[in-house]
Amino acid sequence: MRLGIFGHRAYEGIPEIVAMVLREAPRLAMDVRVERSLMDVAPGSEELTEPGQVDALVSLGGDGTLLRAARFLNGADVPVLGVNLGRLGYLTSCSAREFQRVLPKLAKGNYATELRMVLEATTGLADAPTGVLMRAMNDVVVHKGGFARVLRMRLFVNDEEIGVLAADGVVICTPTGSTAYSMSAGGPIVEPTVESILLTPIAPHTLAIRPLVLRPDTKIVVQPEDAPEEVLVTVDGQVGASLGRGHALTLRRAEHPVRIVRFPGTTFVGRLRRKLGWGGLADRDG
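The structure assignment produced for this chain is given below.
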C-alpha cells in the first residue's frame, strides 16, 4: 500500500505517531509519503505532492485536518482515515490511542468506507459562473465579514427565485456539514450518507425564511444585493473568496465524493451520542 500522511503540527504527539507509522511500514508492506509540513519528523520519507501517489490517506489532527486532506484529493478515489488528536473529531475514524491497532487493518484493506457528498462552488456573474472553483466537503458560507449590517441575498433554486433573504449570511452544506455551522445556525442534522443539499440562513431577519433540505442535484445561486464593497465566501471554514458587486455564487453537487474509512462498531447514531453529548457529556477524545 502507498500511504500518505497529512497532519496538523499544532497537535501534540504528531512526531511520535509519524515515527510509529514509519516503524511499522516495512512489516505492513507500506510505502509512506508525508506532506511537506511533516518532512522534518519523517526522516527518509518522500514528500506527498499529489493524490496519484497514494492508495490511502491518513489525517492526523481534527476535523479541519481531514477537510484539508479531502480538498487535497480533489476528487481522487482515495480513502481517508482520520485520526482524532483534537477535541470533537466528528469526522474522524479513530482516536490516537486506537490508531496503532487499526493501522494493520488499513494496510490489509479490512475496513468499510462511507461515500460523502461534496459541493462544488463557482463564483462569477449570476448567468455565467466562470470565476473561482472550490470544493467543500462540509459547507460553503456566504457572509458579511466584519460589516455590522444586514446582508441581503437573492436566492435561486434550479433557476427559480426563492426570494430575498435578509440575514447575517447563509450556510449551504452537505449532509456531512449538517453537524457543523449549519447545526449551530438552527439547521437539521442529516444522516451523512443521505445525499441532499442544506440551505440554512444565519440569523435571518424574518421568521418566514426557514432552513431547506433540497435534492442532491439542485443548483443554488446566491446573489448579494445592496451589499458592502465585498461579500465573503468561506469554504469548510478554511479557504474562500469574495464576491464583488454584480457577482454571484453558484453551487451544485461535485462529480466525485470523498471516501471516509470506517471500522465495525462505529455508527452514525453512536457518533452523535458520543460527540454531541446526547444524554451526558460529549466525548471529545474518542
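Interim note for the steering committee: The CA atoms of residues 2 and 20 lie 16 Å apart. The mean pLDDT is 89.
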